[in-house]
Amino acid sequence: MSTRQQIIVNALRQRWTEVCKQLATAADLQQFSKWKAPTTWFASSDDSLTAIRTLAADEPIACSEAAALDEAVFFDQLQSFSRDPEQRFELLTTRYRHPLNIAAPSEQRIREHLLERLMVADRARLEQHSIDLVNVDDLLLRLNLIGIYASFTTDLRYLDALNYYYELLPAAWRPQSPQNWLRLSYLSFYLRALATHLS
Amino acid sequence: MRTGILAHSFSSAFAIYKAVRDVPGQEVYIIISPPPHRSALTSHLANLARFVVASLNGLDPVRLFAKGRLIFLRAPLHDPASVDRLKKLKLDVGLHKTGVIYRDVTINAFRLGILNHHIGILPGYRGRSVLEWSILQGDPVGITVFFIDTGIDTGARIVVSEQVDISAYKSVGEAKEYLFNLDQVFFPKALTLLTGSNPSFEVNDGTGPRYFVMSKLFRGVVEQLLQANEVNPHLPQDSST
């Protein structure tokens, strides 16, 4: 292993230990079952939030290929709801009923859009104002989707968005929301992404 | 060629002025605009103080002012009054030293456009923290001077793009300061090329990923890579910068 790789691996290992502690889990780097990325699109029989819970618990989820959904219309809708977190949450949970579809080849523009929103507008709002000003469900859902994709890609920007939010969101933060479990699922996807990059 | 340095602060503009004034064929203007979220009056008073201090060290600032080449705008650069003023100056090129993203009306007030000194190699490294990302990923570090558009480092015309050796610097802060200060080397280079008879451009196809502010975790990695001299593996041996 080169010096560069060693330095990166050491940092990721240290973060891995910290996240394990926060999740109060003694995880093993090899413990995660292997996810399959959709070639085009996965059909889904669950709703998005149930499927996210299943994936976060590392339980199996049915993956049968189906025809891809239209991307262009969805992308326009997503952009038009950039200031409407409730609508955006609705849009994203409807499209990603099978959350692994975030890794589908057709979703490249959408992933970039979600990453950009997290790292520019949301980050600025959180750093300049308060976490109470953001829609928690919307923020956490997007972190979950980015977290899922971070396990499929070697593009370190996605892993680093998770690094960044891990450092930004207080460890003791307990969101007041019916979907506050999305915080734990995002952390478990973060752990999985770290494992992917470490192994 | 008529060149306008666009800045919020007189001192940062004047440093560029001193670097480009002797490029043959240049008629250089300094255009100071108030920064966002700060009143024009406060900004101008601060710049007046900087102007006086600079004048005590030499007569250049006074000469600039007397020739009408030091201009204080009362409104932001996209304001119609500011755009009008810029158009009347009939400038060929702007040099970016402000902290704002320009709108089309401002860019179009310059015959050729506004040049940006970017501390990364385009099209591969767009956006924020590109020095850190280049080091993290083991890619060459460098400078790109290009004509901006309204996107994030997507302007299509690259005037100068060069790798830079930063192996002498052992922290991100020092390396960044060094690269940012190289605008005093790269802006004159770009203006010299543009003043030539047939300037050509490399193409920035804008396809490179946009980078964002880096986490503390990866920034720590980059600091260690700098200390271990794990940078610029592809720098050519004959690099002069």
Q: Which SSEs are present, and which pair or pack?
A:
The complex is a heterodimer of chains A (199) and B (241).
Chain A: H1 3-22, H2 48-56, H3 72-80, H4 85-95, H5 108-128, H6 136-150, H7 156-168, H8 182-198
Helix pairs in contact in A: 1-8, 2-8, 4-6, 5-6, 5-7, 6-7, 6-8, 7-8
Chain B: E1 2-7, H1 10-20, E2 27-32, H2 40-56, H3 60-66, E3 70-72, H4 80-89, E4 93-97, H5 104-107, E5 113-118, E6 126-127, H6 130-136, E7 142-147, E8 157-163, H7 172-181, H8 183-195, E9 202-203, E10 210-211, H9 216-227
Parallel strand pairs in B: 1-2, 1-4, 2-3, 4-5, 6-10
Antiparallel strand pairs in B: 5-7, 7-8, 8-9
Label this structure with key terms.
heterodimer; A: 199 residues; 8 helices; B: 241 residues; alpha/beta; eight-stranded mixed beta sheet; two-stranded parallel ribbon; 9 helices; 19% strand
State the helical fraction of chain B: 25-40%
Strand order of the largest sheet of chain B: 3-2-1-4-5-7-8-9
Helix count of chain A? Answer: 8
**Any idea what the shape of chain B is?**
globular
The amount of beta strand of chain A, in percent, is under 5%
Task: Write down the secondary-structure element order of chain B.
Answer: EHEHHEHEHEEHEEHHEEH
Structural class of the helices, strands and pairings of chain A? mainly alpha
Strand-residue proportion of chain B: 15-25%
Write the H/E string of chain A, N to C: HHHHHHHH
User: C-alpha Rg of chain B, in Å?
Assistant: 18 Å
Outline the low-pLDDT stretches of chain A.
none
Query: Overall 3D geometry of chain A?
Result: globular
Q: What does the oligomeric state look like here? A: heterodimer
Q: Uncertain segments of chain B of ≥5 residues (pLDDT<50)?
A: none
Give the largest chain-chain interface (CB within 8 Å).
Answer: A-B, 22 and 19 residues
Radius of gyration of chain A, taken over Cα atoms and rounded to an integer in Å = 16 Å
Largest sheet of chain A: none
Strand elements of chain A, count: 0
Q: Give the tally of β-strands of chain B.
A: 10
Structural class of chain B: alpha/beta
